[in-house]
Amino acid sequence: MKVKVIGAGLAGSEAAWQLAKRGIEVTLYEMKPHKMTPAHHSPDFAELVCSNSLRGDRLENAVGLLKEELRRCGSLIMECADATRVEAGGCLAVDRAGFAALVTERIRQNPNITVISEEVTQVPEGPVIIATGPLTSDALSQAIGEYFGADYLHFFDAAAPLVTAESVDMNLAWWQSRYDRGTPDYINCALDKEQYETFVRELIFAEEAEVHGFEDRRVFEGCMPVEVMARRGENTLRFGPMKPVGLRDPKTGREPYAVLQLRQDNAAKSVFNLVGFQTHLKFGEQKRVFSLIPALHDAEFVRYGVMHQNTFLQSPKLLDQYYADRRNPLVAFAGQMTGVEGYVESTASGFLAAVAMAAKVQGREVPVFPNTTAIGALGCYISDGSIENFQPMNVNFSIIAPLEQRIRKKAEKNLAIANRALEVIDQLVARGV
Fold first, then answer.
1. How is residue 312 annotated by DSSP?
2. Distance from C-alpha of 348 to C-alpha of 273, rounded to nearest angstrom
């Protein structure tokens, strides 16, 4: 039996790959390059929009655990990410273009996957996995709403600007990773108290681009525009993306008042991302305000931040722990449209939806990924009907089943949870999931 996968982002690419490796013929529909969204620029699959970082790589970090689980399960996305890795201290960051190109190449070369470049405007009959992301086209978005007869949750998401490395004034910046973890892979741009206060003041009153329906209260907390954060209090940025903790200015030997970090965005180290600076300011205002940061006084912006609407399902009411329609197990969804937030989380949803779908169409028992694993915990979270105010969620240890024994130190406790999870994953892999 053939399975259709709609959308070739991270979740859709992972889902297609997992189905194909289990001997299932896959028809993968992707509307690019014939139709592009405002946030996309490349015709390649698995295009990274908001950031090139897949976040922390340590097992004491929940997303680090999730990545390791996916690696052990044979994830295509993780394999391509590791192959195109760029230095980012204790984080996994990738060459954005190289990563997408490699995923595209692997998908197109798989004999079990047929790629069709066209927009899907209706919910197909199953078996199908719909992974069209938070930027689902208007036609399909409407069709999904009609299919469920329920409202979506609407949020707004924002992408950070990119600057050229050569335009950063390294006389006013330095290389270091926070707490000196790993190699010194971030460019750190310090501000003193006066510079910071001036920056925040100008940021608060900078002119925003029009975004119809935008309201601060509807901004998803995990990707909040920097200007919205600034309006929440003068020191909000110093406890957020501009926190100086774990950094030391070599000129003074002391912790700066505030710091903007720049993270490598490509393998050539020629382009850097303003970490945590998602924004929807007008382009001219971005250049004016962000250039107030001393090391960026002559910064060359190769991409400005953009703002776009994200759409999410009321998943706890609609989907089961395998991301399938509770009424029809052969119609499943994956990716950020289900309420998992983040690149790795989207990948995990595509993986689990595909593993479950493969078992269903092949007449096998669907393997259980329990909430003692990060993969399973995400599926349990988006399907938890007891959640009254459903919000998109990054993976975190609070949604993973706690240990039976008490461990006081947080890092030790998290590592114990991670080790327990990996034992379960290894058992599942040994059974051929």
1. E
2. 25
pTM score, whole prediction = 0.79
Residue-wise pLDDT for 92-130, tens only, equals: 889 989 999 999 999 999 999 999 999 999 999 999 999
Find the farthest-apart pair of alpha carbons in the chain and give their distance in angstroms, rounded: 66
Sheet holding 91-94, edge to edge: 53-56, 91-94, 85-86
Q: How far apart are CA 226 and CA 311, in angstroms?
A: 21
- For residue 56, how far is the Cα from the chain centroid? 12
The residue type of 308 is H
pLDDT digit string, tens, across residues 256-277: 999 999 998 877 788 899 999 9
Q: What is the domain partition of the chain in residue ranges?
A: 3-152+313-430, 159-307
> The domain 159-307 is classified under which CATH number: 1.10.860, 1.10.3470, 2.60.40, 2.40.30?
2.40.30
pLDDT digits (tens, 9 = 90+) for 386-397: 877 787 788 989
In the three-class reduction of DSSP (H, G, I as helix; E, B as strand; rest coil), residue 185 is classed as coil
- The CATH code for residues 3-152+313-430 is 3.50.50.60
